[in-house]
């Protein structure tokens, strides 16, 4: 969320929509127009109405025509992400009544978009799952077709299957191609590379086995000008944090809950739900799982969501601290616990 208000930051909104776009039926140019509209909203605001003129919007969209702009706005309206409030003279402006504190606003109202954010995150999660499924099936088809063509270069079904991979395929099309191949590569159970204690997956405590307790997060984020503070507590084995404590310390992540987060499994599921909207791609998330374990990656998502307004690029920063240059000694539980020290006591 933005530090100036309780609304999701623009880059999170756009990353969520880009991920969800295949299921929403929105193309990249239309999303670019929506991004231009979002760029016109002030950080501090009490409404989501865009008053910018067509000239301003076309400039921010690299010179598209008025006709294209109108068409994109109509598509966004049809998708339920925008409402038009036209004034009698077709100008965009607001008129305030100081006496009763009311206002009339004429312009492009993006309230429907922000109202549907939780739903859109769910759609993005579904789209990501679908993309991962298709990627797995196409890999399986390619491996099977190559094996068959190695033994028989004239194998018709294998040649057709490999040619079909040049275009975008649906799950049903992939499954149909696999049925036409007599040979498929051997499959086995995936290895999540756990480094967390998952025996309590349905329990209420997250346990972390890690000798180093270094909080390699530059105190909070890239944009902080303060030097990194490190946890001086002695290293220990099997640090624990209750699930309800995670929820308490990470309200920004918790507000998108689809159901109460009560177990470690719920923490993991919600992190996978949040990752797409934060700009964390599947490759980065899988790399984090391999290094930190399922719950380690999940805790990192929860923690970064809480401080995301101080991070320029969430996806890149997540990758850096979980599997990149800053990953040495990074402690997900340390990240969560550091949030408690940052909380300002109420008086």
Keywords:
single chain, 347 residues, alpha+beta, Arc Repressor Mutant, subunit A, 3 domains, four-stranded antiparallel β-sheet, three-stranded antiparallel β-sheet, 15 helices, 7 strands, 49% helix
Summarize the structure.
It comes from Salipiger thiooxidans. The chain has 347 residues and is an alpha+beta fold.
Q: Helix fraction?
A: 40-55%
- Based on CA atoms alone, the radius of gyration comes out at 24 Å
| Helix and strand element order | HHEHHEEEHHHHEEEHHHHHHH
Residue share in β-strands: 5-15%
Task: Give structural notes.
The strands form 2 sheets. Strands 1, 2, 3 and 4 form a 4-stranded antiparallel sheet that branches. The chain has a 3-stranded antiparallel sheet with strand order 5-6-7. It has helices at about 10-25, 30-40, 55-60, 65-80, 110-115, 115-150, 155-165, 170-180, 245-250, 250-255, 265-275, 280-290, 295-305, 315-325, 330-340, and strands at about 50, 85, 95, 100-110, 195, 205-210, 240. The protein has 3 domains: about 10-115, Winged helix-like DNA-binding domain superfamily/Winged helix DNA-binding domain (Arc Repressor Mutant, subunit A, Orthogonal Bundle), CATH 1.10.10; about 120-180; about 195-340, no CATH class. It is about 50% helix and about 10% strand. Residues about 190-200 and about 210-235 have low confidence and may be disordered. Helix 11 (about 265-275) packs across helix 13 (about 295-305) and helix 12 (about 280-290) runs parallel beside helix 14. It has about 350 residues and is of the alpha+beta class. InterPro entries: RepABC_RepC (IPR047611), RepC_C (IPR021760), RepC_N (IPR005090), WH_DNA-bd_sf (IPR036390).
